[in-house]
Design goal:
By secondary structure, the protein is an all-alpha fold. Helix content is 58%, strand content 0%. The radius of gyration is 11 Å and the shape is globular.
Length: 77
């Protein structure tokens, strides 16, 4: 799942997938703004087949946290 998430984030942020890692956060990713965050949420819901809650969306501030949220939501499916 890490590689798939890495690819989705890279596409949304228009960066090379190798620049996305466990260390990627909103603070250190220049193209991660409010609009790209909304695109990211939509892409994650579509690509991973999960329904994100409002709290999930607000807490999606890093690669690691997003991975954790997707894993939790996928387990509920």
């Amino acid at each position: 799942m890490n590689e798939k998430l890495q690819q989705v984030m890279a596409e949304v942020f228009e960066v090379n997938p190798t620049s996305i890692s466990e260390l990627t956060t909103m603070e250190n990713t220049e193209s991660w703004d409010s609009m790209s965050h909304l695109r990211l949420i939509g892409a994650i819901e579509e690509q991973f087949g999960v329904a994100l809650q409002e709290d999930d969306m607000l807490n999606m501030t890093s690669f690691s946290k997003i991975n954790e949220i997707i894993s939790a939501r996928a387990g509920q499916a």
